Amino acid sequence: MLNNVAYRVFLSQNTMNYFQTDFMDNLKRSLNQLYDRDKRLNLNGENFWIVEKDLQFKGENKSAEELVHMISHTHLINVPHAIPFVLRAKIFQHLLILQRVEYSGHYIHPITITRATIVEDAFAKLFMQKFNMKKQLAIKFFNELGQIEEGIDGGGLFKEFIVKVCEKIFDPEYGFFKENE
User: Fold this and answer.
1) Hey, where are the domains in the chain?
2) Are 70 and 62 within 8 A, CB to CB?
3) Would you give per-residue pLDDT tens digits along the chain (181 residues)?
């Protein structure tokens, strides 16, 4: 019953405006705890949490774009378990394709990294400048003499950058982490 109430409350932004934020937060948290417990203990059947039982039938022949318009965005955010997994997966794959198209190579963000200060440079260039991590990076390394190392980043320099940053961050001598005894 609580699932049906939540489904109706989160039907649209207009419906949500009738309720206080605390009520909706508590409703969402309580429902998620019940759902998580049910999935952990396997108390109910697979489709128990689906509110509109015919939704999967309605959506199986629809394109992902039609599904995005058919299913409420607020449901996907607040009560995703009330929508059949197959439909959520189809919508998610569609959204991924849209993201790939939006960020596919037409905007490459060049950053220069000094090998000696790779972690500091990565932090300054990516975090402090609020870099959008969905955009493609083009890495150029400076060597210890301050000269740009020759190379075209076809993915290898990016991989080297990620590997070196991870090695440094997880190095116990660097101080981010301590080894267990």
Assistant:
1) 2-101, 108-170
2) yes
3) 788 888 877 877 777 778 888 888 888 899 899 999 998 998 888 788 888 887 777 877 888 888 888 888 888 888 888 888 988 899 999 988 888 887 776 667 788 899 889 999 988 888 877 777 777 788 888 888 888 887 666 668 888 999 999 999 988 888 888 777 7
Per-residue tokens: 102? 């939006």
Write the single-letter amino acid at 84. P
CB 157 within 8 A of CB 141: yes
Quickly count: other Cβ atoms within 10 Å of residue 44's Cβ.
Answer: 11
Instruction: Dump the DSSP string for 50-67.
Output: -SSTTHHHHHTTS-HHHH
CB of 134 closer than 8 Å to CB of 106:
no
The β-bridge partners of 113 are: 141
Pick from 99, 97, 75: which is nearest to 87 by CA? 75
